[in-house]
Write a structure and sequence with these properties.
The longest helix has 19 residues. The chain has 158 residues and is mainly beta. The relative contact order is 0.26. The termini are far apart. Strands 1, 3, 4, 6, 10, 12 and 13 form a 7-stranded antiparallel sheet that branches. Strands 2, 5, 7, 8, 9 and 11 form a 6-stranded antiparallel sheet that branches. It has 1 helix and 13 strands. It is 12% helix and 47% strand. The N terminus is likely disordered.
Length: 158
């Protein structure tokens, strides 16, 4: 039963993405709960969705989403992010497309929720979109830098 619900949710997400990237359509909001640890990573609770709906990165991990890209072209990735700073430094992240760097490292400018955008060139077909928390810092009882993703959407250039 759970597998059937998961397949239905995945199909619905794919259909929404295809509709959202059609000419004149709005951006597709990717489901944060669809994130998977990058293949080969050990299982951990350091990546997941909190009770408040934010995706948390409690250590330097890569979360990935499988995305069906309907057409070759230019896209804008919108990332709504916040962080818990440590040692006076905010969180940073990098975006990858099929394990290849996509743009420069993003340095959060505030601990508060803010939207960051990246331009991506994507090929049609299934792709893996990844976000890697790049500057984790932790010392028990003293400091703990964390990254939080509030929303993630992809918009085709019109």
């Amino acid at each position: 039963m759970m597998k059937q619900l998961f397949r239905s949710a995945t199909l619905a997400s794919t259909l929404l993405f295809l509709a959202a990237t059609s000419p004149g359509a709005e951006a597709l909001r990717l489901k944060l709960s669809d994130v998977k640890l990058k293949a080969g990573s050990p299982p951990t609770a350091h990546l997941g969705v909190n009770e408040d709906g934010r995706l948390h990165f409690y250590s330097g991990l890569t979360g990935e989403w499988k995305v069906k890209v309907p057409a070759d072209g230019e896209y804008t990735l919108h990332v709504s992010a916040s962080c818990q700073a440590a040692l006076g430094v905010n969180a940073n992240f990098k975006v990858t497309v099929d394990d290849k760097p996509a743009g420069d490292e993003v340095k959060l400018t505030t601990e508060e929720k803010k939207e960051y955008t990246l331009k991506l060139t994507l090929k049609s077909g299934e792709t893996r979109l990844g976000i890697t928390f790049t500057n984790d810092a932790y010392k028990e009882g003293e400091y703990d830098r964390n990254l939080f993703i509030h929303a993630l959407s992809l918009e085709a250039k019109k």
